Amino acid sequence: MKREVMNLKELCAYLRLPEKEVLRRIESQGLPGRRVRGEWIFHKVEVDDWLQRTMAHLPPEQLSRIEQGVVRAGRPLKEEMLVSPLLLKDSIRVGMAARTRASVLRELVEIADGTGLVYDRESLAASLKEREELGSTALGGGVAIPHPRVRQPWVLVESFLVAGVHPRGIPFGGPDGSLVDLFFMPLCVSDQEHLQVLARLVRMLQDKKFLQRLREAGDAEELLEAFRAKEKALLRL
């Protein structure tokens, strides 16, 4: 695995945070870095791991900064729909059948494979399991965002998002001990896109009224429409 290394200045640009704030997060929030000959160095894969684990606890303004990490087609990324275009009718399942944490991952892979956008479902399943073994991807409040630990562009035809609604909820190791009934699995071909999509998704899922609308969706079309409406409202489009 390539271990891209960043210095402190590069990390500040990557996280879109001032140096003082980055140093505070190293000290108090476990942002992984080490000093070598008096200089801070950071391995990108470790920083991305940390971001993914802590993103659920970030305030909306920082999530927004992560979303704006690049500019596409000359426009600020904050003006673009990030999540809704990745949802497909075939990547949504209302009425999941899984009964255990392990079978949830298997069912999500099954849904993803059914879209025809996965080249290697075994590699995808292994990467999901590896990430989940580091710690549950449940956010609390009945929501979980399982995802591969690292991007595997050779596994996917293109980026997309899997969404599943469970009729009862199952234990998934969340911080509040609640049953999880909403599952979202972002599958992106690049690290940058993954972090931006994850940040936007987390920001959307912080809205309890939106979560209730997702739970009440009767089919894939209703859930997809709920996502479109919420993201447009978030962006004030």
What would your notes on this structure say?
With 237 residues, this protein is an alpha+beta fold. The protein has 2 domains: 5-57, Multidrug-efflux Transporter Regulator, Chain: A, Domain 2, CATH 1.10.1660; 78-235, 3-Layer(aba) Sandwich (Mannitol-specific EII, Chain A). Helices cover 44% and strands 20% of the residues. It has 9 helices and 10 strands. It has helices at 8-15, 19-28, 44-54, 60-67, 101-114, 121-134, 191-205, 208-216, 220-235, and strands at 5-7, 34-36, 39-43, 71-72, 75-76, 87-94, 138-140, 143-144, 160-170, 180-187. The strands form 3 sheets. Strands 6-9-10-8-7 form a 5-stranded mixed beta sheet, sandwiched between helices. A 3-stranded antiparallel beta sheet has the order 1-3-2. Strand 7 (138-140) and strand 8 (143-144) form a beta hairpin. Helix 4 packs antiparallel against helix 7 and helix 5 (101-114) packs antiparallel against helix 6 (121-134). The protein is globular and about 55 Å long. The chain starts with a strand and ends with a helix. The model is unreliable at 70-78 (pLDDT under 50).
